Fold each of these.
Amino acid sequence: MGASTHTPAFGGRDQQALHTTDSGYSPRMPSEDGDLSFLDGPKLELDVLIDRLVESAQGVKRAQDRLRGLLRANELISGHLNLVDVLRYIVQAACDLADAKYGALGVIASDGSLEQFIHVGIADELAAEIGALPQGKGLLGALINDPKPIRLEDMGADPRSVGFPDRHPPMESFLGVPIRVGDDVFGNLYLTGSSRGKFSADDEELMRSLAGTAGTAISNARLYAESQRRQRWLAASAEIGAQLLADSGEDPLRMVARNAQEIADADLVAIVLVTPDGESGMVEVAIGDGAEELVARQRQLTHMLVGQVIRNATPIQLRSLAEGGDLGTIDLLPGQPVIDVGPLMLLPLTGSADTRGALVIVRRAGRSVFTGADLEMVGGFASHASIALELSAARSDRQRIALLEDRDRIARDLHDHVIQQLFAVGLSIEGTAALVSPDHAQRLRDQVADIDRTIRQIRTSIFELRGALGGMSGATRQRVLEIVGELTVVLGFAPQVVFSGQVDLTVVGDLADDVVAVIREALTNVARHAHASAVVTDVTVSSGEVELTISDNGIGISEPSRVSGLENLRKRAERRGGSFDVTKAPTGGTRLTWKAPAA
């Protein structure tokens, strides 16, 4: 037989089981009981693989949880229309998703500054101790000026950082992303204090996604809030429109101011009207803080910011008086408001012919600014105040015309019926006097004289009814009646005035000035010296002469020449070629007679 070849048996107890490294196996060594076991090296590698697999699974789970959190946050944010609630939900959701200790959201105003600043993580007590909220500078301002994401491991190392105020907690890591819809930037979302020491690219991606949803939510909330305000403005407009047509109830101007304060969320609302001379403005209505200090205050329009609005008939909207440039160097209203003036709107109240005044709406300093939509809505509302003024003037004119028509009817009846009847009675009495005895005839003639005086008094009443509202303020009759009315308070009673003849056509110019001066001086003397309870002033024009007779029932006068002022009346009469006389009246008291040529 040939020689045999011996092949080592694999797997025997006395043989080493080999495993090539190319196949990934390591040599196995028999154990003491004869079983094979792995060495420590391969076991550690498997543990590492398993740990890596578990870590990857956990990472996938965390990513899944964050995505679910993002979806929940998007659903929660999209389900609210109240802007303040939406902003706070956004900040809280951002902190939860990115594991941030602090979060904030700044809403950008139309002028680029921060309009609102909502923060999470700092207690309200600590925030009050820190002081005013950020104004959009430093890193916050950088995001406003260039709305692109900013991610930093150390805020203090960035040259754009401006540091923190006293008592502010330390912050290092920072992540900021803009909140926008298309090209419109509504604000910025800020996070600091990452639990992992710094924010990752995944954190930034999540925040950008959340910011996209936030932008849509903020836009919807703003549109909803604006629609709600418009609805309130329309409801208030309907209420005021109904009140404008009513003859009683709340003053429409006050209703305009009250609704403007409530709907515009203002601290002070005032309505300033132009005075009749057109040179000054007066606060007609004021509602809000310090309103009682402003009502009825008056000042020239050139010295007030509201005067600019009235003269130019153009609205003004400012963030504050300090930002008004040259406009901020003059007073806002007649009288300084007691509040620290912040955002404000001033709108002209334009009538059919001119600007009658202005509507002033003010918020305290530090409050949110008014938007262009606010100005638009209030502008439409201010037209109701203008309509109220127009209707008030028209109603006053209508009442004036009705009063004139009524007085004219009464005057016409007095002239056409009462005076004619009195004339007829007088003529009848005079005819009867010729048929009776001389004693009875004299008594009848005295009655006729009384009827004549009554007729003159009625004619004076007719003039008062027609002339006082007839625009004849320069006529002699009207001037005499004005003097008598002025001295009624001094006398303590109303003097009786009688006119006879063509007083207004004859007594004009300097002669009218003398007549008015004589009556003023005579009635003043009665008030000072006579202790009278009745005075009759008779102005008669006849035969080219004007005669004044002022009679009272006082204590009389013993030495006329010594009474103060009477000598001046004498000189006035003599200068015109007339006469002046003071005598005792037949019924007691004093009678003053002043005569002068009418030509």
Note: The longest strand covers residues 184-194.
Amino acid sequence: MSFDINLLMLVLLLILAAVNLTVGVANDAINFLNSALGSKAAKFKTALTIAALGVFVGIFFSNGMMEVARTGVFNPERFNLNEVLIILLAMMYAQVLLIDLFNTFGLPTSTTVALVFTLLGASIAVSVVKVIQTGSAFTTVYQYLNLSSILTIIIGIVSSVFFAFIFGYIIQFITRLIFTFDYIEKFKKYGAIWSGIALSLIVLFIFLKGAKGSTFIPKEILSFIDANLTLIFISSIAVWTIIIYFILWFTKINMLKVIVMVGTFGLALSFSANDLVNFIGAPLAGLNAYTYSLSEPEIAKNTMAFLKEPVKADMLILIISGIIMVVTLYLSKKAQNVAKTELNLGRQDEGFERFESNILARMIVRFAIGFANFILKIVPQPIINKVATRFDISKYKPLIIEGEQPPSFDLIRAAVILVVSSGLISFATSLQLPLSTTYVTFIVAMAAALPDKAWGRDSAVNRVSGVITVVAGWFFTAILASIFASLIAIVIFYTSFFGVIGIGVLVVIAFIRTGKLHKEKEKEEDERLKRIVAEKENPDTRVEFILNAIKEYMTKHLLILTDSYENFFILETSNLKANFKLAKKLDDEGMAFIKNIIKLYSENSPKVPDDGYLYTKALLAFQELGDRLVLVTKQNHKYIDNNHHKFTNEQIKEIGDLLKVYIDFVNQILNRIDKRNFENDDDIELLHNSIISNIKSQINIHLNRILLKTNINFKRSTIYMSTLVDVEMFAKDILFIYQATKDSFMYYIANKE
């Protein structure tokens, strides 16, 4: 009995279906959990349970989308069984690798785009191979592809992003204009009709329009819904408005939380109905193709045209898929990692910005500011003043639960995000357009943040940079997906069994490595969260947190600085670049620390400190320390990268001796902070004075070298003297920080006693 390579590929396809469900849900699940988590409308487990129920119900609405994986990208009549299985297996290998990689780094990507472009890449690769084998012209490759369907899908994805932004912004603007940030009393007046419309939209688009993909709702009922859609919608608004009016006035039920929870259920249902095809569509197509080949072996050797015929997915397979997705929701930690990106970019308050600014983001922000100023000039001032009062963010007072972080945004915005996202996704699903749920929910969330002024001038550039990074990742997904899948398809086509198994082994290795990497990132994040929680604890914990943070910051500063100069002396360019990156990261950490200190002071200090000048100088010294370290490490890297002259042995020795004294100086301070011993500063003062006198002496010596023209290179001389001055400024900043730390600690001890 000969070995059946097609059966092996089918078995791997079915295994990959289960894997793809887990990595896909880890990536997409957070799309429908973000609003509930960001607004803290419910406990995490409660939101998760409601979402899980929505996911499970949604699988029964997904059948109409399954045709995308069968005929949406390639023309099956042009391929035989083996070729179709190669296309589908290459697509699944590439997709699970790609999505898992994005999940590991916490970047939301699109499983729909991954599906379409991995399928496209694999189809093109196999088509080209067939054209070469048959000796046909390359221009005939297009005959193997369903170009009209591909174009429709791409247009649907791109247009969905556009409409998501427009609707997200406009609806949030109107909603905030009605309710403002101080919305509790106003919601009692106007909330009934708004909630009625919101719930009606969810019911209409999800339970009615989305039902078109279902196999268990009779056609007569679907026809009646289509014929009476307007009447059903108006009636639904009237009924819901009346019910909610009585709820608002006669109960203490928070209707916004109810809408967010219903929206979470609805969006989870929409996700499942729309995206299940991304996870199991290809394996089911492979299963159908192989089953058909058993009954029609001769036809299957030549063509898979039967795949064009509509096939209903087996209900048992759908239920098993639903169970896997629900279990993944509860167990996947990578899903929570992806959430942090969207919540971070859309949060209402300031804090640590995950993304650095770039030139495109700066241009966009400048244009937006200019456009806003233009609008302000042409709109009458009374209207501007009236609108400004409706968007007064000073009235934003988030409900903070003791022991927890404040919500990223309020319930009003959460409700808008869910209503707009679920409506757009369900409407597209009813038209059998596989738009990206990730793109829609992400763009709606970002658009809704704009009217709320969540992106102020201090954070706008960083957050726009974040959005650009995510969107660029989407395009990168498409390109990478096509390349991955095409290469894998070619390898499998020419190596058969060895390629199938070899790539499978590579996938397993990749999963193990990304799993380890994610655990490391998770450990770092846990430590960071513990520190944040410490800020909210009792004064003892808060003081310990501040002292430990200062010590850690100084330690990192010292390591990066000394390592940069060591690499500078030996001309190690790659390490100098790494030092520069570490310095930038430390500078960001310093800025976040400063913001936390100011926030703690504003929340806990009843009066201005006795020596406000010293504390202010210390905070500025922190910022200066970070900024100067970035400049020094950049300067060192640039100097060596440009192949300038190496320092002379004399200069290396002089800088090295100075750094030894500086290291001793910083270590003395670190030792005092570590032991909480601030009794005698004589040795610290002595070391600081030694640094200053050493620098003055070295500058005079070097100026004499210049006058005597002894082995002088002016570029090198400039960097040398700059290094001396930088160390002096570092020492002054460190001393300011130490003095403020000492005074704060002594003040705390005195008042504690």
Note: Confidence is low (pLDDT under 50) at residues 341-353.
Amino acid sequence: MDKADAFIEILKREKAFSSIKKSEKERAYFITFKYNKKFEFTYIILKDIDYDYTAYMPYVVVNNDSDDSPHFLTRPMDLYGKKYKGVCLYEKIMNVFSEKNFEEKTEFLLSQLIKLLTLSKREREIEFQNEFLYYWNSNANIDFYPKVFVDPQNEFESLNYFLKNGTYRVASKDIVFNDLKQWKLMGNVGFLIKVENKEGIIPPVNKKWSVREILLILENPDHDRISSFVYQKLKKIEIRKKKIDLFFSIPYEENRRLIFGCRIMFKNAGVKSFFEKLQTDVESLNIFRSSREDFSYLNECIGNKDSRKRVGIVGLGSLGSYVAKELVNSGVRTEFLFDDDKLQSENLFRHSLNYVYEGYSKSKCLKYCLENMHPEVNVEGFNMKINSKNVKSIVEINKIDTLVFCIGSTDEQMDLSQALRGLKGLCTVIFSWLEEGGRVGYTLTIPQNSNGCYKCLKEKANIIFPYKTEKKVNSWLKNGCGAVRTKYGNRTLLTATNGFLYAFEKSKQREEPYIVSSDIEEGIKEHKLISNGCEYCDTL
């Protein structure tokens, strides 16, 4: 029995399937069948594919030119002169198909198809909404594809438009870009409207949206899809342009929000109120694609939380450069970098900067690299040394709420300890360094209003994590009189940076000092510290 006949036998077990027909092409079997005499599907089995215990799956396509069900793909494909629409029945990443044989795969696909076709009205609506942007973007009919940067907390606002080399940015007015000089501010009119209740809002599937669908969102008292605040704002707006853009922010999974937009063209540029203009003067409504690219959203997409902290980093050697970069990757958009040194070639392969920047200021080069990671990342690079005389004023002037030291020199940390006493209540202070021949990273965190300093807390930390004195001869490299480097590489830095990020995240909830050890072999360990005071911090 070939695979096509095996499929037909499986198909016959379900009474809802009927009108089964088998045909054969040069490279494939086509088995057509109906579900409850409504939808007609085709099961496509390629002859040269082994479906037993491999990642390959047969295709399920719908023959009807129909969009009555979610997960019917909108763009048809041409097979042997006939058009079909694919049916999306599973998410690849959620399944492992190489563990199943052909019969198990077939039973899985048919069960998924039945689930799809037996959804309730509300369940169908939810599925359409889950794939909202797919259907919306598939119906885009104008050549306008803006990159959208919005503040998700805003209920309603007028948006700014910027243009560079044919690309548009549309942004909330409180978004600060680090490359704004390269963009031209345009006079387009657009509004962001936050949808509170998405019930009944279906993307364009069977028919395109018209102004009627827009008004059902904005003026439907039965569903309260927008807040009364937004409604009152819209009522007060006067439209003086012949075209406006509306961007809708709609709830999505896990508190995320999707943005979709449309352009409304009016018959003339006469001045009327927003709702009057929509009700009487609309010439056309066109759908456009957009890409939400704001810092908050991109962090949400990978599970990060957008941190509004203003972080200062003192010391931009190997560990400091890794910390600066990974803080941005973890959701920090505002940094202040302090180092009076230039990048040297000996440290290139354990520094986040590359060979191009050799001989240049670490702080200025890191500012350039970090700001290129995203236009909302704002970094100030100071080619200067932090000392006991300037540290407090620097924190106050730049409104730094977390000050990170990656100096690595215990003597320098001690010199700063007394001055840091004046930072209590101003900011959280974090010390991060490498010890034990460059094998273990430590991060000592002193929350904003807690007691203790580097000197007395490190003494406590040394008891909890005693220093292993057996130093290997080859753990140091001498580069001439007085120039000594610890021999460690990328693996150590990744481990130490991981420990730092762990400590940084904890600092948002902790009130007492704590030490985090990050060991290549033993992983992360954490311990609370209690200061008894010392002559530096005079805590007690």
Note: The chain has a mean pLDDT of 89.
Amino acid sequence: MKDIIIAGDWVVDEYWYLVRQHSEISSHTGFVHYRSSSKREDRILDLCSAGHVARVLNSLRSSSNDYHIWGIGDWNDGDTNQLLHLIHRPKPDCHANQANFLLNRPVCSEPPPGVTLLPLHKDRPTTRVVRLYHSTEDGIVQLSRIDWEQPPEEVKEKRRRNQGVLPTGLPASDKVGAIVIHDLCKGAITPQLIEQLNKHFHKARWYVRTKSQAPEWLDVIRDRIDLRLIGPEVAEPDNPWGSWLSGSENKITYQSYTSLRAVQSPTLILSEDREVIGRVSRGKKCITAKAQPPEEGITQVGWPSALLGVLVHKFHTTGSEWHKELFEEALALAHIEAGVPVDITPAAQPLLSVRPTAVIREWDTQEREWTSAMNQMGILSPEGSEPCLEVWRGASDLPGYVACIQAKRKHIIDIGKRLRAFIRTNDPIRSLSILLQADPGSGKSHLAKLLARKFKLSPLSFDISQMLHRDDLLDLFDAVATEQANREQRVLVIVDEINARLDNAPVYSSFLAPLEQNVYVRRGRVFSLKPCVWIFAGTGPEESERGKSMKISDFEERLTTTVKLDYPSLKAMASTDAERDDVRSKAKLEQVYLGASIIQQRYPDVEQVGLFVLKEFFQLTPTSSPARAIRKMVEEAHNVQRGKVTIQNIKDDGPAEQQFVRLIGKI
């Protein structure tokens, strides 16, 4: 069997497992102190990135005769022997994975056979990552991570000198059947190296994972790639919801569909919840799967690299094409090979694998379904089945919130990105503040609550229109301060009807200090607030009000962003007649999804809705803010029976229903 070359960033992870030091002496300075909780050693070494792929391949080989593994990358030649011993499974007589305060740790006499490591530049330092984990009753959480790598100026200098030649000692061209590229963008993979590998091993199959969306060397081998794996760290910034699947059958979301539609080579995209979507078989097949999610951060480390290694092994040894059983087995093996293969604490062990399930469907089917779902009334008409409305498709980005207008979807995704960045900032200086302007009854507060739930924020809701005097705002700030003191999670404050007046004056000025300085004043005393998320819901300040008080402008200047979701604003954003027509048609489509979802909430037993009912929702005029009319129409329906809603349930003079549409899934 032909050999495999693994080129990329070989990184050594150094794990510290800590618990809090509960001692009056150690904490007298006011800092939190930790001590090691490891049972055997203070620190544990493990391979990451390209090295992890090599470890997985070595683990899955039945013997070294299956194929020879060649590793190339940047590390110090003095570390080559220890890196080699980190590839095999831990052994009682091999201490390569232990990094306590003794030098020259002894290694065993049996390095993994059939593995050769060749550094690209023998004098380069080995890239290392120090990970500090805190052992708690709830498991192991990462405290911090410290990277040690080549300084950027050295990487640039290497590129300038065009050092991309292959190391000596590699096998002949006809001996290599696969090349694996694992690029962390730390300087090991250069266009020159890719060109040399491509030129020398012109018959090898290529498997790629990179932390860059579009590395400059990708075009050199784009037509030769058999699989490109896009990990969560690359895909998540454009997908703040962290999910690629939705609906009762785990079908791809609309955002997944648009992402896969743009891929040009066999591609798998991963999420942090171990969801997998992709296009394979020359783009003709769509694959969706969900593996067992990790319960702790420690079991998440290395899962994408493990999956890449398993898939390379499967395809290299079997030569088979994509099929359901192969991918399900690959997901199960990747779960076992992920994480740290060292018995540090019981919590650090990978979880027992649960057999995942995968679905492979025709890409044309996905395209046809999403095209139908995003046009006209969204009704799908599968062959041999009754027409259906997959209700979840109207809210596939943020489950629970209907958004089909492209500009509206972009706004919601942008809010999600801002929230994602805010909650991942350890010590934010300022609050995140968003003004939502939308049509009356369109669900602004509902959207805010869904965002709080999605990002695990503690929600607090207030309605200015229900307050009597400006002093009531002080109670609002007191409630926020109390919630922040009592909750570990961050707070999301929803202020509805921000346009309402108290004591015959706008309330904007009352929020200037909380937004700008994180403080508020009560009876001359200054009280502090922690940075939090403020979502103000309203219909936008009237121009007459703007002229009366500069405080409105001051308020808007202090906001992080203003999001206009109302129909006139969305239509005004369109630059052509075609775009304006699309906004109008998508707004009417949203009315259908909204009406269907309200029916599901009001009548949980209803499975079918008359076509005339959906047309009634569709024909409402978007400029009339129809959300409240739709809700009233459903709530006043009468004589709903046998799991069906007909037009006669809504209108006494409605025609007899001729066709019904089945509702599938919920938003």
Note: Residues 344-352 have pLDDT under 50 and may be disordered.
